[in-house]
Amino acid sequence: MTRRRLGLSTRAIHGEPQPRADWSPVAPPIYQSSTFVNPIGSDAEPLYTRYGNNPNQVAIARRLALLEGAEAAVFTASGMGAVALAHLAMLRPGDHLVASEWIYGGVHRLYQEFTRLGIAVDYVNPTQSRNWKRAIRKTTRAIFLETPTNPLLRVIDLEPISALCKAEGLALLVDSTFASPVNFRPLEHGADLVIHSATKYLNGHSDVIAGAVAGAEPVVEEVRKLMQVWGQALDPMAAWLIDRGLRTLAVRVERHNATGQKVAEWCSGQQAFAAVHYPGLPSHPDHAVATRVLAGCGGMLGLELKGGARSAERFLRALRIAVHAPSLGGVETLVSEPRFTSHASLSPEERAKAGIPDGFLRFSLGLEDADDLIADFAQAAQR
């Protein structure tokens, strides 16, 4: 008899359900210990929180692997830690990486550090497969991209890029933070590693800094070994909070999807906005791809205010519900200006060329009532 595969919500809550002993706690305990008693004469790896094998760390790693359809997963102390270690597991001095132009500014800065390690990086517009092929060298070892992208929410079709990677013997690394495993699972579309800033949707409550990597067991084990050396292990309390967050991941993302679509549709009809960036809108350049590959278009929304930076500042000051703060994926609506946060390292001209003019606002829509958010946007737009 074929064993029925559990749904995403069930996996997010239980992982692989196991029998529970009488009087055992329903909520897992926090193993707030740096080290554990080691058997005398054993050559097994010691349990040591810096090694990433604390029971809290192991529990959420197994859960994420099940959600992503991966052999293994590991959590790190930050999203940037996850990005860095995933790359270092694949690349060596003298290697070449091809990356999408549409990536988080912090990753751009990481790649500047990579040049000091002897790792070369070239950037391409990710929308056409031939761009990737032209950028490949004899020393190319991997391709990296985000989807959906930050902050324009472009949705990249992975399948032709995956086919190219397989033909050329390259690893495909995908940051899927904006989608979460509920809306998109890159490994199902040919990626080798999926990366998350677990600070965002996986945790979902704006109270943890963490990252995660999922994929084939040997590569994830290499990431874990690097984590031990670079000191990127997640602390037990943060792991416990992520465990709690994962239990509501599916229902939270479903609500984000519904709210995102409703608010984006309202915004698209307002004169105050020069452009609305949301893949669930037919006007979005990747709407067809998003409809085909995403289970939902999420809670991220990009708005361009007519009148540029001054209009954006007036709009921000008038908002009553949305909180002006970086980060995303929490239960509360957050708004930030990429010119001061994710893309602050770029000049105004470079940002404009990238499609992020002054006056661009990035919203992470939370779990508030959509009608309340719309009313808040409406009154702010009238100021």
Structure report:
The protein has two domains: 44-247, Type I PLP-dependent aspartate aminotransferase-like (Major domain) (Aspartate Aminotransferase, domain 2, 3-Layer(aba) Sandwich); 249-381, Aspartate Aminotransferase, domain 1, CATH 3.90.1150.10. The termini are far apart. It is globular. The chain has a seven-stranded mixed beta sheet, with helices on both faces. Helix 3 (79-90) packs across helix 8, helix 10 (249-267) packs parallel to helix 14 (370-381) and helix 12 (308-318) crosses helix 14. The chain contains 14 helices and twelve strands. It is α/β, with parallel strands linked by helices and 383 residues long. The longest helix is centred in the C-terminal third of the chain and has 19 residues, at 249-267.
Q: Characteristics of this structure?
A:
Aspartate Aminotransferase, domain 1, alpha/beta, 383 residues, Aspartate Aminotransferase, domain 2
**Briefly, what CATH class of the largest domain?**
Alpha Beta
Provide mean pLDDT, rounded: 95
The percent range for helix content is 25-40%
The total tally of domains equals 2
State the shape: globular
CATH topology of the largest domain: Aspartate Aminotransferase, domain 2
Distance between the termini: 64 Å
Let me know the largest β-sheet: 7 strands, mixed
Number of helices in the DSSP assignment: 14
CATH architecture title of the largest domain = 3-Layer(aba) Sandwich
Q: What is the helix/strand order?
A: HHEHEHEHEHEHEEHHHEHEHEEHEH
Can you tell me the residue ranges where pLDDT is under 50 for at least 5 consecutive residues?
none
- Provide the CATH superfamily of the largest domain: Type I PLP-dependent aspartate aminotransferase-like (Major domain)
Class by helix and strand content? alpha/beta
In total, the number of strands is: 12
